[in-house]
Amino acid sequence: MINSKYLGGIAFLILLLFLIEFTLSIYGIEESIMFPFFWIVFFIWILFGKSYLKKRNL
Is the pLDDT of residue 32 over 90? Predict the structure, then answer.
C-alpha cells in the first residue's frame, strides 16, 4: 500500500509538471522560477516520501 501511494505521488508530480509547462507555454513563458522549485519538491519526495508515508501510517 505504501509503495502504491509513493508511486502515485511521483505520478502526480510528473503530471503537475506537464500541467505547469502547458500553462506557461499558453502564456508564452519559456523560463519560470517555478521550474527549479518543482524539481526540489520532486527530489525531496523521492528521497523522503516513503519514510513520510511510513510515519503517517503508524
Answer: no
Q: Are 5 and 57 in contact (CB under 8 A)?
A: no
Q: Number of structural domains, the chain?
A: 1
d(CA 53, CA 57): 6
Q: Is 33 helix (H, G, I), strand (E, B) or coil?
A: coil
Range of the domain at 42: 2-57
Task: Tell me how far apart the alpha carbons of residues 34 and 27 are, in angstroms, rounded to a whole number.
Answer: 14
**13 contacts 41 by C-beta, under 8 angstroms:** yes
Give the pTM: 0.73
